[in-house]
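Before a colleague's protein record goes any further, I have to sign it off. I want your independent view on whether this chain really folds as the tokens say. The record follows directly below this note.
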Amino acid sequence: SNSQRPEATVRIEAIPNEAGDECRMVVIDITSERSAQQALTLREQYLRAILDNFPFMVWLKDEQSQFIAVNAHLASIFGWPSTESLIGRNDFDIAAPDLAAAFQTSAASLGVLAATYFYVYTLMQVPTGILVDTLGPRRILLLGGLIGGAGSFLFGFAPTLEWALVGRTMIGLGVSVTFIAMLKLVAVWFEESRFATMVGICM
């Protein structure tokens, strides 16, 4: 018969007898095990893609406060070449030495300083939409630019960590209005058929 046999993945093991002078070969079908492993690998790749596309830092730590998973945004914020290079490290390994020395603080405090921007940015999205609809995108963009600029100035000349946190918060607050206001302007200024194209250009 020329009918095609189904493919299978097998593992061959040699099992010796009690005396150790003979052994028998055992063929084990591991097709289902290999398929499950491939499905798990594919799922991990999907989760990695989701994590790396978040616009904010995401991380997981073990009981020793060491990173066991991070996304690409966190690695880029701290200037590391890849997410894998951060696995097994802690806050003290990735904190910028110049900031730690300038503010005489710990790596954990620097982590809060870095994350403050993204927390404020995320929390402001819904209020920004309401403000854009009520006050208009131009006023909101102007106000956001002024707040963000003042925050950048304050952050750059901050004498202490507390002032740096205030400046970082102001930067996140000012920049958070940009995306929503831009969408509103594109929707008003351009035809509906060009909306996606113009948003892509602005991004």
About this structure: The mean pLDDT is 77.
